[in-house]
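hey team, just a heads up i'm posting the complex here instead of the shared drive bc the drive is being weird again. everything in one block, sequence lines first with there labels, then the predicted structure for the whole assembly after. its two chains so it's a bit long, scroll down
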Amino acid sequence: DIRMTQSPASLSASLGETVNIECLASEDIYSDLAWYQQKPGKSPQLLIYNANSLQNGVPSRFSGSGSGTQYSLKINSLQSEDVATYFCQQYNNYPFTFGSGTKLEIK
Amino acid sequence: QVQLKESGPGLVQPSQTLSLTCTVSGFSLTSYSVHWVRQHSGKSLEWMGRMWSDGDTSYNSAFTSRLSISRDTSKSQVFLKMNSLQTEDTGTYYCARNRYGYSYFDYWGQGVMVTVSS
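-- predicted structure starts here --
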């Protein structure tokens, strides 16, 4: 199975700041990577797919980058509604696997 | 609009079988795959398996021996059956649709919480 190592596990930042979340795959996943946002008590919502494509309706302050085994999610101008847990997911190989999540809080 | 909704018992006894239903609307099961993903309380997500649009199935080998996914296209429903449940199977079970031609999930159900306990 492809292991997705996500960091940091938790993150506290101020409103308006920029934050970065990283995901490291145990092998090359050829940009078959998605990012999801999960707010408390809700189901995950797709933010980014194919490593850097923004899902319709997602604010442009969210962006994804990376290739090979290293990927990142960047959130510019942090807003209060961005408080959530973020997960990466690889879909290059079965079984599809997720990172362990990054819990983002406002400082 | 696209919707998925899980239903099933909230409490299952250890060693028993879990049966869940995912009822979809706004798209056809013969055009899109539907997946099952579970989440232990507050923790990460685990892909369990999928029902392909052509009726074929794929499973996570971690569940292969006790997991079965089926469907009824006339009712727009996908079913999950998993036997020999243990307490570690407690969690929230989601069904999700993948974007056409890809295997990331563009729509998710609200999830159903399942507790395995006597």
